[in-house]
Amino acid sequence: xxxxxxxxxxxxxxxxxxxxxxxxxxxxxxxxxxxxxxxxxxxxxxxxxxxxxxxxxxxxxxxxxxxxxxxxxxxxxxxxxxxxxxxxxxxxxxxxxxxxxxxxxxxxxxxxxxxxxxxxxxxxxxxxxxxxxxxxxxxxxxxxxxxxxxxxxxxxxxxxxxxxxxxxxxxxxxxxxxxxxxxxxxxxxxxxxxxxxxxxxxxxxxxxxxxxxxxxxxxxxxxxxxxxxxxxxxxxxxxxxxxxxxxxxxxxxxxxxxxxxxxxxxxxxxxxxxxxxxxxxxxxxxxxxxxxxxxxxxxxxxxxxxxxxxxxxxxxxxxxxxxxxxxxxxxxxxxxxxxxxxxxxxxxxxxxxxxxxxxxxxxxxxxxxxxxxxxxxxxxxxxxxxxxxxxxxxxxxxxxxxxxxxxxxxxxxxxxxxxxxxxxxxxxxxxxxxxxxxxxxxx
Length: 443
Ligand code: GBH
Fold this sequence. Notes:
alpha/beta, TIM Barrel, 8-stranded parallel barrel, 14% strand, binds ligand GBH, carbohydrate metabolism, GH_1_N_CS
């Protein structure tokens, strides 16, 4: 549990919360939005644990004013949302849909009017379905389509967006979406999914160039990272740890920071053209770090298709998702990035950090989530400790503002500071919201 007041954070430290388009917006057919791979996937039987879809989600598309008021009441200095590519370019290629951009235009102005910096992610996994039909991220052209979409979006929202984030967690989109089939588009290619890594990174680099031509605001990417804990002390266990680290933590970072692909990351050189690596290594202003938990790794059984085996870590409390609560892992991770990339590492903002619990209103309609308060307290202390260790961390965003549609888990996992009743759309700030509000106010 929390032990005394949190230490001070540097002046200008950015306090934020994060969401993503498909998880909150709903309004799947509104104002010319086209279908995305997540519409297709969620509407395919058996893909989502509770059979739900994001058709309505938190109905944020119609309730954005109420949600901005919640942000303002929380007192955050920034709000990280994602822009739905299929609203902006419904067919994925060609004509821009101005009505789709209107929604984000109003949202951005409303945020600014409330003193909240808009932080926009361009791709949080909702690829326009027509692009998937043309090959999706397995196809090199998708990287160019992404840059066109970035250009059109920045032409409209330009400098009013205070931080641009190209991709969210390209590793998860590759591995769960194209390697294991757990996320859209549901492909199970294992290591043959590598082109999805390269084309996302290429799209990132091309989008950075497009953004630089349109805006003076800083540009980032949001990667997910997990510090690797090797369980076992054989050479094979250590090799498994190295292999997992290369795949999970380095594959989407080494090339961004000018180091090319890591040796052990099963790179399919057939899709990598030499000039691509320069495009991908375009200078970044901020590295977004999404952190949830560390990962236990040991040597695989003989005959395993993977060069490592993932093992649940013992000795930690667990969230409703069964993920270990390990704030020490965040400090360890930030230190690892600092040591590994040294002077090449841009300032870091923790662009997601949060937890799911089975939160429900009590008889008075209040929602108490002491576990989330303890979680946030611990992770903020870990960030503060990492700053003392010498890591340049300039912001922290809680995942998430609202309980929302948690991908393959549907509505069964609640990550919000604000409880949402998905029958009535009633929003109820949880005790963690009040805790975070008071903490930000005191700064
Ligand atoms: C993020 O992904 C997404 O960006 C966001 O949309 C999503 O809602 C949020 O997190 C919550 O899920 O098997 O115990 O080691 C998170 C990616 C991948 C992080 C799985 C935790 C494994 C936990 N996650 N990972 S464990």
